[in-house]
Amino acid sequence: MRVQDFLKSCQREHKAVLATNFYNFETLTAVLRAASAVGAPVMLQLTRSSIDYLGLKEAVGMARQGLADYGLEGWVHLDHGDSAELAAQCLDAGFDSVMIDGSERPLEENIALTQRVVEMARPYGANVEAELGYVAKLGQTQGGGFTTPEDAARFVAATGVDALAVAIGSAHGFYKQPPKLDIERLKAIHAATDVVLVLHGSSGIPHPMVQEAIANGIAKVNLATEIKDTFMRALKQRLADSDEIDLRKVFPKAVAPVVALLEEKYRMTGSATR
């Protein structure tokens, strides 16, 4: 099934796909093991940094082989693509879905860039996600620049985008203050647009708050920071407790805590079937 069709069905059923970033073989394995354990579909996300680190063909090959090995329904998605050129490379490499992030540009530039990528993706049948409003990235200050229903309606109509990441109070990375999602704003955006809505920066948001967002139009929930943090904390603990130098013995010890984290997150989104 196409990504965009599956996400729309999730939105209608008030559940969401958990879209997980992976960074190496171990974090990919954790995602696949968790999804297999709970019977959840998988959206595997790669950023430019991860693509540069792993290699484009290598990363896609790992993802596809992993999905096949575990017998999972899943897709490969470009997260926070920063140029039309990168989106084109990913589409050519077989990505099912691409995000073009022009959210830090003026609205008209964001619209023009997103239009270009939507047109590029059509021959591939690929899903296109964009971002509108200010969702703070690592190192940026939280607050302000929330998506308005009026801008969302205009943006979706002008671009024909399939999915829209909205700024309703979440942020990428760790939260400096307790997060609070503007659910009333989300309801208004959902009423103003007929498009899949996406929540970025879910790490650290209380589960009931995420579930309330899912009940009001969010159909894709991104998770990245908690995956990295959980893996690295477990790995550092293992290294501190052992003189083992064989990374093939050390790295797998950091996988199990990530699996446990992800099983819980899949259940939170309603995508687990067992």
What does this structure look like?
The protein is an alpha/beta fold and 274 residues long. The chain has one domain: Aldolase class I (TIM Barrel, Alpha-Beta Barrel), CATH 3.20.20. It is 49% helix and 15% strand. The protein has twelve helices and eight strands. It has helices at 3-12, 25-38, 48-54, 56-70, 84-92, 107-121, 149-159, 183-192, 207-214, 225-240, 247-250, 255-269, and strands at residues 17-21, 42-46, 74-81, 97-100, 127-132, 163-166, 196-199, 218-223. Helix 6 (107-121) links the parallel strand 4 and strand 5.
Itemize the secondary structure elements and their pairings.
Layout (H helix, E strand, L loop, with lengths): L2 H10 L4 E5 L3 H14 L3 E5 L1 H7 L1 H15 L3 E8 L2 H9 L4 E4 L6 H15 L5 E6 L16 H11 L3 E4 L16 H10 L3 E4 L7 H8 L3 E6 L1 H16 L6 H4 L4 H15 L5
Helix count from the secondary structure assignment? 12
Spell out the CATH superfamily.
Aldolase class I
Structural class by helix and strand composition: alpha/beta
Got a strand count?
A: 8
The span between the termini is 21 Å
Helix amount, in percent?
40-55%
**Overall spatial form:** globular
Assign the CATH class: Alpha Beta
The strands making up the biggest β-sheet line up spatially as 1-2-3-4-5-6-7-8
Taking Cα atoms only, what radius of gyration do you get, to the nearest Å?
Answer: 18 Å
Strand content: 15-25%
Mean pLDDT: 94
Uncertain regions spanning at least 5 consecutive residues: none
Sheet having the most strands: 8 strands, parallel, barrel
CATH topology: TIM Barrel
CATH architecture: Alpha-Beta Barrel
Total domain modules: 1
Order of secondary-structure elements: HEHEHHEHEHEHEHEHEHHH
